[in-house]
Amino acid sequence: MAEISLDFKFRSRREKVWEALTDPDILSEWVMPNDFKPIVGHQCQFRNEEINLVVDSVVLAVEAPVRLSYTWVGGPLDTVVTWTLTEDEEWTVLHLDHTGFREEDMAYNGARYGWSDKIETLARILDQE
């Protein structure tokens, strides 16, 4: 099994980054339009109509403002996304584990690139506030 494990640093407070991970309106700005709710067991979808992509998700864990986990099932992917947040006096570190890939194939590389690209958008959103 292959796994994506990435760390991102932000100067924003952990609670602000948490809000960007859990508020469906903010998520729509940097991930995709969605009907997400940070409630364990909630079933939702992330949708990108431009490329006809629907990602089905079930929220697996919500430990505000430290850990969020949900399934990420769409196209060839049947995986799990887990975000973990830590902070010190200067930084909030957002750690991503995206697990469940069979191998380092096109889906894996696409997800790895996609998350890095989306995080750049998140950074711009956080910098505006």
Automatic annotation (TrEMBL):
Gene3D superfamilies in alphabetical order: 3.30.530.20
Q: Which parts of the sequence belong to the Activator of Hsp90 ATPase homologue 1/2-like C-terminal domain? A: 13-126
Question: Which ranges form a coiled coil?
Answer: none
Organism domain of life: Bacteria
- Annotated Pfam families: AHSA1
Q: Which family does it belong to?
A: Belongs to the AHA1 family.
Know the name of this protein? ATPase
